[in-house]
Amino acid sequence: MSPAQWDLPPELCCRPMAFVALTGLDVVYNAVHRAIWDAFCANRRADRVPISFKVLPGDHEYPKCRTKRTSYEWYIPKGILKTGWMNKHLNLVPALVVLFYELDWDEPQWKEKQSECATKVEIVRTSLQGRNTKVAVVLIQKKTPLPPGEDVMASERAAALCNACDLSGKSLFVLPHTDHLVGYIIRLENAFYEHAQTYYYTEIRRVKSHKEFLNKTTHQLLFVRHQFKTAFFSELKQDTQNALKYYRAAYSLIHELRTHETNILEIKTMAGFINYKICRLCFQHNTPLDAIAQFRKHIDLCKKKIGSAELAFEHAAWMSKQFQYFGDLFDEAIKLGLTAIQTQNPGFYYQQAAHYAQERKRLAFQLCGGPEANLGYPAPDPLETPTGILDFYGQRAWRQGHQSIDPPDPEKEKGGILALQGREKEVPHSELIIALLSNAVAQFKKYKCPRMKSRLMVQMGEEYYHTKDYAKALKLLDYVMCDYRTERWWGLLTSILGTALRCSYLMAQVKDYVSYSMELVGRASMLREDQKSRIQKNVAKVLKNEPPEAEPDCDPSAVKAAQALWNERGSQASGEDLILEVQDSVPFVQCKARFLHPSFHLDVPVQLHVFLLTDSPHPVRFSKLCVSLSNQDYNQYCVVDSLGQAPAQEDMCLVPGRTHRYSFRFVARPEDVGKKIEITGVDLMLGSENGRCIFLNWRGGGGDAASSHEALQATRSFKRRGRLPENEVDWDTVSIQASTMIISRVPRISVQLHHEPPALNNEMYCMMVTIQSHEDIVARDLKLTAGLKPGQDANLSHTTHVTLDGSKMCDDSHRALLPDIPMGDLQPQEKMEKPLSIRCSTTGPRIFLVHVAYTVDTCIEGRDIVCKCHKDETVTIETVVPFEVAVKFVSTKFEHLEHVFVDVPFLLMTDILSMSPWPLHLVTSELQLAPTMAAVDQPASQVEEVVLQTGESASECFCLTCPPVHHGTTGVASGQYVMSWKRKSANATIPVVNTVITLPHVAVETIPLYVHADLPSFGRVRESLPVKYHIQNRTAIVQEVEMSVEPSDAFMFSGLKQVRLRILPGTEQDMLYNFYPLMAGYQMLPLLNINLLRLPAVSGQLLRRFLPSRIFIKVTFNGPANSGIETAAKLACWLHLHLFLEQMLFPM
Amino acid sequence: IELKFHYTVHTSLDVVEEKVSAVGKVIVDQRELYLGLLYPTEDYKVYGYVTNSKVKFVIVVDSSNTSLRDNEIRSMFRKLHNSFTDVMCNPFYNPGDPIQSKVFDSMVSSMMVQTC
Fold first, then answer.
1. Any idea where the Trafficking protein particle complex subunit 11 C-terminal domain is (chain A) (predicted)?
2. How many angstroms separate the CA of residue A449 from the nearest CA in chain B?
3. Which among A413, A935, A1136, A1148 has most CB atoms closer than 10 A?
């Protein structure tokens, strides 16, 4: 039996296809025949009918058919299925034999050819004696045949040929050798396929027909055999549905067989075959659940059928194969489109297969002994058979065909078992296991089972360990270790580490050995104390360059080899340094490094603590501790070693469970100001120069794979920890601080700002900067930077100007920020003042910065360093509008004017309202008139030297006229109003601010007629009041004016009551009236109506606006009562005159 | 043997993870805590249960044990969950630390005794 004893035979695993033999083809020498053969077998695609073709010589001997049994009465079957049977029907006994023969219908020597063909057919027939195999003849012709029925000779000769060869017409074919060869071939093979189908159908009938002769007591095996054969033929016939049915029947029959120790292997073998077929067909029919169910049933039924106890490994091997084959089938189905899920994928079957393979290995070891054990192989090999193969599947070579319960010869049986055990010892179990495991790993990877994958990889690693392939084992274990570490499954990690440690010991890998040992001794390990103690002692030995003690459970021979290796290592490797990265594992020494503060001032030494804690059973002595920093210049200050200023020896020894603290301090360099100093790593050296040195290296500020979680737990915990003695620290309270900032020295000066906010728009705002030194030594190179703080709105820097010279007004040439104004040195306690002037040309808040920088020389811990210090002050200053100016145009009667009239005087009024919180000093004001305006008199400022408090206002009034304008101009510029002012508190040197207010445009109109009146400012009751009206014609034509005076209750008057007159262009007409007031107080003057006859648009109302409407009438003091009569007489006289004039002027 | 159980439980987390993430997409609030049978092996049946705070419980039962139906397993998980909640409610318990509650231990052992 071969090592592949448990493999399924290939004829079982293939897809059965109808077997058709082709004879009469000379594929070697005849090109036509070769082409025909190629057309049959080359490029068979899936749409071609499933046939397996074979070229055989015409006189090929087919397997002989045994004489048919007529009765089964005395027949006792020797086994279930012959080993050759499947192959026989797949490859040896054809369903159809096709004879190819070159013959054209118009062959001249027809007779001879016909009989030759008949002879050839006869030879084939004889060779197939007793079989149902069909025979067909294909005539290879050179000419294309005519359509059927037209070629009379062809049909005659065809009939004759059929007759001669004893063929039915259906079995004679013609293959014209023309261009369309493949097309003809496809038609031919379809016809062959039909013949084959019929053949297999008859075969099935034949097998079924045996059934009635069988009886249940002696022919149980035949029931199974026949069902199997029927199913197999059905498969050949491509009737997979029925095949499945028959296989299922066969499967249930096989479990009805009586099982005993001698036939159990045969039963299991056959059950395995049939199960394989069923599962395969189920997958093919796309019913994977049926396949799985069948397989489960199969396993459940067969699990307990172990058979001979001495050959228990055979059962395990068989089980393993069952799972493996099912996994293969499953996987194949998936490749063809089946979808598997996480919990049901081929991986599980491979895993189980691996499990049984391990079981097999265990049993084999147990039953066959270790590799040294020699059982003695029996001399004539009982496993050899005369033919080299077995007659029936699953039988024993030394007792083939034996079907009774007891073995025929106990002696032979013993020999056979011994031989099997001997062979089992040769089997490379681990290889099988690893192959299965890696299959499973691949599957689980595909179905997202990372943990399952890790677990299987551990198993693979362990298997490699058993095969002594330690390097591969370590590689696998190392790979998965970190997964278990990050998920904190310490129990599993410990077990893996144990294996890894043994591997590294056996290979004498010092670095790995120490690394695994340290983790096994550390807190993540679940080993017992005594184990840890043993491992730690081994580490100590390695450090002394001595070989460590062997790990328990190691193979003794391997240990011997390992010891030799260790001795070799020891002799060659003195003083070699091993650097172990411990960040990603959980070593037995923990490290945390921290700067005492997140930042240090330059003049303070930087302080750094390194905490170490060991959780090993024994104290750990180290020989050096050093810290690497991002600036390597400082590294020299952060070393603890046995040389130099040696600390006490006990400091170099870590006591388990106690937190050890190592402090370092150094002075930072001035150029590192503003930079970060980081701990890039901590190195702890174990061992000594004369032994072996091992550096444990922590990247950054320490910590390891478990520490971050521990720190989290510690912060959550509220547990009160017992008070620790002085100088001891609780490990959990220490946090890592891996970096610190170096910042400049704290300045010891004061900067004060004196000013009076808010700033007024455009003024030169004064700010006094007072700097006072509180240093003990001279502050050198004082520099002041002042102005608008950078980083604000960009517009602000254009509208803000800063200067040191407050006596002149700033303009755009001044900058917003004055940098680095040198101020010289400042003695201790000295005070320095610097005035600043700021001009803000827009309102709103601004942040101003005053930055004072200086240097001092200091000495820290014996090192002289120059410290740069600086102090910043910022202040937010609001800028506000100092005052508001309102301008309005009014008439001389102080009436509001929509527009002004040419050459008619009007008033311009300005109102200045102070908005400033500080008193405002108005120095002067000036009216700068536009050419389109003229002042009636010399305008002088009326608000000169006025001081306005908050909310107060000042007004000015100017009388102006507007000279004639071009016709059509509607608005004219008025000019500018300039205010000169400063803040009241400002001293004399501060320049005056000139604020220019542009006066509004005003609408101008010309009027054709201008009327104004001359009259005294008041009148007295019963005293004559002369009023003169001037009527001016401003047009270039003669104007006809009609005017009348309306009577009034308050006045009597004399003068023309109603008159019509003409006024020449540009001249003025005066009208004199004498009013005689009758009542005291403000009195309405008699209304003067003027109508321009030429220009009716100009109404009297408009003109009346130029005239005073009222006058104040005082009471007379001296007038005696009797004078009233006189007055009345005078009045009557006036009235007369009036009437007379009227009549004279306006004759009716 | 204990190691094997550790591995069994650890690998079952693959399935738990997958199930939780699949369910998480649908409805978070009305998630069924009991995940049912995670995966069958030859020897054991592994059941899973995940609380709303993603604490996972796993029960491993011998394959041959047929007395425990789905409902029994479910009620076992409930009991376990309740007891676990009690432990969590203990103000002196620091979440994440190993559970050292006598009540919890005895509850678990009584459950084990019952099923055996």
1. 1039-1090
2. 5
3. A413
Determine the pLDDT at residue A1147: 44
Nearest to B13 among A451, A713, A719 (CB): A451
SS3 per residue for A698-709: EECCECCCCHHH
- pLDDT, one tens digit per residue, over A881-933 is 888 888 888 887 787 887 788 888 888 888 888 888 888 888 888 888 888 78
Q: CA-CA distance, A953 to A955, in Å (whole number)?
A: 7
Query: Per-residue pLDDT tens for A325-366?
Result: 999 999 989 888 888 887 788 888 998 889 898 888 888 888
The verdict on A452 touching B (C-beta cutoff 8 Å) is yes
A713/B41 touch (CB, cutoff 8 Å), yes or no: no
Give the residue from A363, A381, A365 showing the smallest Cα distance to A373. Answer: A365
Count Cβ–Cβ pairs < 8 Å, chain A vs chain B.
52
Per the CB < 8 A criterion, the answer to whether A596 and A711 are in contact is no
Q: Chain B contact for A489, CB < 8 A?
A: yes
Residues of B in contact with A452 (CB under 8 A): 11, 14
Residue A495 contacts B where some CB pair is shorter than 8 Å: yes
Q: Is the CB of residue A846 less than 8 Å from the CB of residue A790?
A: no
Identify the CATH number of the domain in which residue B55 sits. Answer: 3.30.450.70
DSSP chain B: -HHHHHHHHHHHHHHHHHHHHHHHHH-STT--SEEEEEEE-SSEEEEEEE-TT--EEEEEEETT--S--HHHHHHHHHHHHHHHHHHHH-TT--TTSPP--HHHHHHHHHHHHHH-
Whether A992 shows a pLDDT value over 60: the answer reads yes
Q: Which two tokens stand for residue A593?
A: 């490094």
pLDDT digits (tens, 9 = 90+) for A140-190: 887 776 666 667 777 788 888 888 888 887 888 888 877 777 888 888 888
Query: Residues 271 to 300 of A: which have CB under 8 A from any B CB?
Result: 299
Q: How many residues does chain A have?
A: 1148
- B96 contacts in chain A (CB < 8 Å): 709, 712-713, 716
Query: B10 vs chain A: nearest CA distance in angstroms?
Result: 7
Residue A528 CA to chain centroid, in angstroms? 44
| Residue in B2, B14, B42 closest to A452 by CB | B14
Q: Report how far residue A452's alpha carbon sits from residue A440's, in angstroms, rounded to the nearest whole number.
A: 9
How many separate domains does chain B show? 1
Written in H, E and C, the secondary structure of A758-799 is: CEECCCEEEEEEEEEECCCCCEEEEEEEEEECCCCCHHHHHC
Mean pLDDT over A48-77 rounds to 76
Domain that includes residue B78, residue range: 2-115
How many other C-beta atoms are found inside a 10 Å radius of the C-beta of residue A473?
26
Judged by CB atoms closer than 8 Å, whether chains meet at A489 and B39 is answered as no
A268 and A302 in contact (C-beta within 8 Å)?
yes
Assigned token pair, B61: 């039962």
Cβ within 8 Å of A, B 21-40: 38-40
Is the pLDDT assigned to residue A1031 strictly greater than 70?
Answer: yes
Q: Which residues neighbour A375 within 8 Å (Cβ) at sequence distance 6 or greater?
A: A368, A369, A418, A421, A422
Which chain A residues are closer than 8 Å to B7 by Cβ?
455, 458, 492
Tens-digit pLDDT profile for residues A645-701: 555 555 778 888 888 888 888 888 888 888 888 999 898 888 777 778 888 888 888
Question: Alpha helices, DSSP H only, in A174-263?
Answer: 181-209, 220-236, 240-254
pLDDT for position A416: 82
The answer on pLDDT for A2 being more than 50 is no
Which residues, including other chains, have CB under 8 Å from residue A101's CB and lie 6 or more apart?
Answer: A24, A117, A120, A137, A138, A139, A140
